[in-house]
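[Meeting: bench + compute handoff]

Bench side (C.D.) handed over the final construct sequence. Compute side (W.E.) agreed to return the predicted structure before the next meeting so the bench team could plan truncations. Sequence as handed over:
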Amino acid sequence: MNVLLLLDRASDSIFDSPETAELFEELENKGYRLQRPELEGSLVDMLEQRPEAAGAIIDWDTMGGELYASMGELNERLPFFALTSPGAAKELQPPDKDKLTLAFVPLPCRNAERTAAKIDRAVRRYFELLLPPFTRALFKFADAKKNTFCTTGHLLGSAFRHHAMGWAYYKFYGANAFRADTSVSVPDMGSLLEHTGVHKDAEELIARAFNADRSYIVTNGTSTANKIVGMYCVSQGDTVLIDRNCHKSMTHLLMMCDVVPIYLLPTRNAYGMIGGIPADEFTSEAIHYKLSQRDDATWPTYAVISDSTYDGLLYDCSWIKANLPVKKIHFDSAWSPYAPFNQIYENKFGMCGEATAGKTIFETQSAHKMLASFAQASYVHVKGEYDASVLDEVYMMHTTTSANYPIVASAETGAAMMTGNQGRRLLQNSIDRAMTFRRELARLHDECSTWFFKCWQPDDISETKCWPISRGERWHGFLGADEDFNYLDPIRVSVLTPGMDPTGQLMEEGIPAAVVSRYLNNHGVVTEKTGPYHMLFLFALGVDELRTKALLRALQDFKRDYDNDVPIREAMPDLFKLDPVFYMNMSLQQLTRGLHRVMRKRDLPKLMYHAYDDLPEMEYTPYQAFQKNLRGETHEVPLAELLGQVSADMILPYPPGVPLVMPGEKVTEKSAAVLDYLNMLCETGELFPGFDTEIHGAYRRKDGYYVKVLDEE
């Protein structure tokens, strides 16, 4: 970072005067590159486009007022150096010095060498403060190029460079990736497991950023973060209150711990989107009723709620914390780690507000999902009273002794980036781009005389906010919604395809989203999730204007190719290659009609409603079922024969990635829609190559799908 920007708005610039030439020459001698970009937009926008800048030298006469006006949005750490006439510095001191790093350089410059040294010190100080503590120490270690005889065995990349294959691998990632891949053997770095040294400093930084009392860095994903929290919160024989819309890692927790689960039942709409849990599910009366259905259940010691849902619905978390009568409450916020950093998410994340009297609040987050972090970088946050020694022990139980330090650094950096003006603006830009995309898609839809895609959103999106899922509004499709309880996150954009209305009425003609998703993938656009008639796109921090325009263009390209009834071999060559004989004479319209016909025949919306609302019966707890599985007390049956059997595994179609059947549950006549839904998914994949649905817990054989069930006693 050796770039200094020269900023002015004058045609006759002070930068071209003899008074500055000597100073600039001294700076160049110190290794700085002086760049003078065109200032076409605002100062803030220009600096956003030059994040590598180590500082900025400004012409005070033309830029001073703009600098002060913008200081609430600027990177408050970035050093600014104002070239000014004598006395101007005293006249225009910033009203809030904490929001700006500003030094005045009076002209004429009497000692250019000393002034250049002053600027150099400020830049070095900036870079020192820019990096968070663990990342700074890791960079320093990597730069030192020490002669190591400890783990990791590739010794900072040396082993790779002694083999042709290894050399190619080394060149792909670059030297720093290997120099930074060290271990706890290096005493300078402290210990992740013992929470010492710069590891502890990183945890404290993260806790401050997310308003937590304590934070842990988890290097193997929120799947593990969830198990850490769960195993701390439960003991043998406890009853736990679990969101049925839970991630499969929570099911694994239930398989590992001898506990009794009772379920909070979320809503669903006709599109198959996962809604919130109704507010009355959190009441003492509802919990008492659930407990009465089992002889082995006691009052729950631990509750888990997914916030937000996969489809972007957030809760009023402050209401849940105040009203849910359980002492340990865990918000699985894997999808919304950005919520603390913008006002539209106020009270919509687990760590919001102050501690809740008599309760301990936990929140797990996937930094890598929506922030700037490597895959598997996650957090555990705690607010309220807890036993540090026990939680540390559980953390150690689930954490490797050989943590990947680049992942640790990325978790810290992901949090550090969100603090201050720059982080808040980074998130605001993501929100703004999502809003721009939503409005542009709505405009294109309204202007189209035939058909076009539209977003799942209220009719009025003039205000940027989290939109409430209000009772009586048709757009969201959730029946009996609670007022001011669930909200749609604007940066989680679901695009609807033609074929079904919000009530679940299937039209004569339709375009299943799976076809559009495959087309987009063939054209360089990857969706996050694809449902029957909707696709989910995440407007994370890395989404820029070019990506947004590329998505809009790809959707328009699909409409063009669909309307022209382009052959599959041209529109989706990757799909064509899967089965050239089947797709030889098929067009886009023929493919969409065929898939849509299957969904109409099976009445997909009704099938999905019943599949997720009528739960199978719990014959064994997931723990008990897993113990039988370990003892080999199982056998396989065709999926079609699951009725009346007790599943040994969880059965989970993706999407939406929510367990349909838990280990130990029996599919009965009442819950037979589960089996009908799974059979429909399998039938679709058999009829149309390339449109299989991934079903965890179902094993594909030559003669169809099989599942593992428990032996009868």
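W.E. noted at the follow-up: The domain at 190-418 is CATH 3.40.640.10 (Aspartate Aminotransferase; domain 2). C.D. will use this when planning the next construct.
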